[in-house]
Amino acid sequence: MVLNIWFGSLILLLVGMFSNAIGAFIGVNIGTDVSNMSSASDVVAILKANKITHVRIYDTDAHMLNALANTGIEVMVGVTNEEVLGIGKSPAAAAAWINKKVASYVPSTNITAIAVGSEVLTSIPNAAAVLVPAMNYLHKALVASNLNFQVKVSTPQSLDVIPRPFPPSTATFNSTWNCTIYQLLQFLKNTNSYYMLNAYPYYGYTTGNGIFPIDYALFRPLPSVKQIVDPNTLSHYNSMFDAMVDATYYAIDAFNISGIPIIVTETGWPWLGGANEPDATVENAETFNNNLIRHVLNDSGPPSQPTIPINTYIYELFNEDKRPGPVSEKSWGIFFTNGTAVYTLSLSSSNRITGNSSVTYCVVKQNVDSGKLQEGLNWACGQGGANCTAIQQGQPCYIPDTYQNHASYAYNDYYQKMRSAGGTCDFDGTATTTTVDPSYGSCVFTGSTNSSTSGANFPPVSPGPISPEGGSSSSSFQASIFQSLLTAALLALILL
Which residues form the X8 domain (predicted)? Predict the structure, then answer.
């Protein structure tokens, strides 16, 4: 028995060492309230072309999970809010859910987490009583399938569960949910899982009545006279993002529970807003996400937990134009569905960017009728004289196989060749110009000045799995160290 305990502790130590060596990651949420949603295979092609290693989907869509198979991309799947009530009342329903929607896809699809509901406590408070039971039933089903070490269970909550998040050191959860949150934290602690937080500095700033400067929300440095300081701890907060994460750590600590890391399951900034949303701009969205990526990938945590990286998922991959509400609600995407970046995204680990502002490109407008696009595509590749070889099957720009993507390539090729002779970017009102380079992966649009830096390539962050195209040498080296240590442990066990 002592030997088993020793060996188990050693394995946990080795896994912990390996996990800490890997560092933080940036992932992306994939919402599907999109009019012209690309096929699952096309979405995965965009992910792979941009080296995105972690994604969160809000359900368990079979097409998406199958398309993600054998990519190595780590996937967080979701129990919808509508499913929480049923699962929370029935262990059998939880077991069936795991068997059908998780176990049947792994290991080909690299599912590593289950998000149970979305902001359940604030969006469907009547389900609070069954939230933790649902998580327990799902975890027990994972244990029965021998998947509990690979797949973690948690539940994303908004910052609204903390009524007064500033100063962070005095933050506590809304006492209305004390019983549920205590049970939740105990579950996360016992299963070695993590707290999922949706943290939006955009809303913290826009609803703050001018209390905080916008630079604080955008990760911009503040002059010493304007720095944000917690009066109790004297900790300096350089970003509202860190303050939100720290408020959650302090709220957890108020229950005398520690050792639960926080993962940010949603954050971002809208790039377009209505007349009463002046802060939803391309410039602000670009600044926020650029600075967010740099901040997360430096592996540092907030002031109260400086050694715990803040793994984060950006909200979101595409603009969900079908979502109800203000203009900003439909404008959080970092890509259009054809894989074109909405704005320049600087990548701190490689210094590559998504665009080249010195060149103007011609691309398809959003929400254009496919019939008109087909007509424009046929004209550009025929009478217009565009070179459309790259969008043929098997060629680098064929995927995503959509009228939007193919027409953008053809329109741009025509425009770059003919604009000096009077050619325009109109195509019967279906096209527009942009300074954002629409190139992605190995698909290079005419006019791109540096094919090696074109495309909306996310940084090849170290925590990502090794892709079929190959992984970084540092990741391979870390893996070999882990394997060597594990081998040594097994040998030690045999010798004992």
Answer: 360-445
